[in-house]
Amino acid sequence: MNAASPDTSLVITSNNDNLPGISPRPPSPPRNNATTANVIQTMAVIETMKYQESTSYRALPYLDSAVVTEHDRSALCQWGLSFVDACNVDRKICSIAISYFDRFLSSRSSNIVPLCLADQGDFQLAFITCLLIALKGREGVHVSTTFVSEKMCNGMYDSDEFNPMELEILKALSWRLNGPIPQDFIQYFAQLLPVSTDESVVEMLVDEATKNSEVALSNYAMALRAPSFIAFVAITTAIRSLDLDSLPHLDILGWWNLIGSVVHGNSVDSV
Predict the structure, then answer these.
(1) Which pLDDT does position 7 carry in this prediction?
(2) Which tens digits make up the pLDDT trace of 54-63?
(3) Boundaries of domain holding 211
(4) For the chain, how many helices (H) and strands (E)?
(5) SS3 195
(6) Residue 185 and residue 238 share a domain
(7) Membrane-crossing residues (predicted)?
(8) Could you give the CA distance from residue 183 to residue 77 in angstroms, rounded to a whole number?
(9) pTM, 2 dp
(10) How far apart are CA 168 and CA 22, in angstroms?
């Protein structure tokens, strides 16, 4: 892509002002004892997120007849991760931005979408704007459009191009900005691990699965799958790659079967 590499000296401001009608994302759930009440509460949250991913927050294929390519999209995703690292903010922000980006480009309510799919410059502008929306709405971080224009993009875009694009994206998304991403499912699935599981094992498993989910989101075909499915695949890959000798085989198998059952469509009551 043509946007500049992230400036590690980036100065950003943080505030508590969220976009209109948007509640802050809940913090990652703390690890606690897997009592019946906690399990029921966790499963209820998971079921709510599964409903969201199958309705208002679903992304559809959009590159079939586009000029821009899967490689262009993957490059933007990788650049986005580098940018949030340079900003020293949670890498989940990039995953949230990717979710906005895919949903926006698969929407049919904006006349801007065909332009973004036909021109790499507009394609990049849409992604960068999604990143700015995620930073502002989820981290309370505001990056000035002048800085974005001059430092992030080397003057490729004028500072007054971002606000109109932001409005187009927000309208196309119907201001729905609080849907689940794979990392959310990973965190809540981890709450269902046996209470006897060593904290270091939980942390290692979550970290590895999170890395796997970031790789998956850079892959166009995989990113269009449900976040819960991406999380399940990421966890499965993590289990296979890590040394989990400290976790009894039957415990990890039982947990894996449990979350697999939920991901593949069984209701909470039937699990």
Answers:
(1) 43
(2) 999 999 999 9
(3) 36-54+179-270
(4) 12, 2
(5) coil
(6) yes
(7) none
(8) 16
(9) 0.83
(10) 17
- Kindly indicate the confidence band of residue 268, based on its pLDDT and cuts at 50, 70 and 90: very low
- At 167 the pLDDT is 95
pLDDT tens digit string along 167-193? Answer: 999 999 999 999 999 999 999 999 998
Digit-coded pLDDT (tens) for 6-45:
443 333 344 433 333 333 444 555 444 456 678 889 999 9
SS3 (DSSP) at 166: helix
Query: Is the four-CA dihedral 248, 250, 251, 253 of positive or negative sign?
Result: positive
pLDDT average, residue stretch 115-142: 92
User: For residue 3, what are its two tokens?
Assistant: 């946007």
Q: Same domain, yes or no, for 209 and 148?
A: no
Segment (H or E) for 141: strand 141-142
What 3-state class would DSSP assign to 145?
helix
Q: Which two tokens stand for residue 266?
A: 């069984």
Q: Which residue shows structure tokens 């430092």?
A: 151
Residue with tokens 């007849």, as numbered in its chain: 65
CA angle 111, 81, 154 (to 5 degrees): 65
CA–chain centroid gap for 200, Å, is: 24
Number of domains in the chain: 2
Vertex 167 angle, CA 157 and 225, to 5°:
95
Residue whose C-alpha is closest to residue 119's, from 157, 151, 147: 157
The C-alpha atoms of residue 92 and residue 52 are separated, in whole angstroms, by: 18
Residue 57: strand, helix, or coil: coil
Between β-strands 13-14 and 141-142, what pairing exists: parallel, antiparallel or unpaired?
antiparallel
CA dist list (Å): 154 to 5, 83, 119, 146, 193? 9, 14, 18, 11, 47
Same domain, 258 and 183: yes
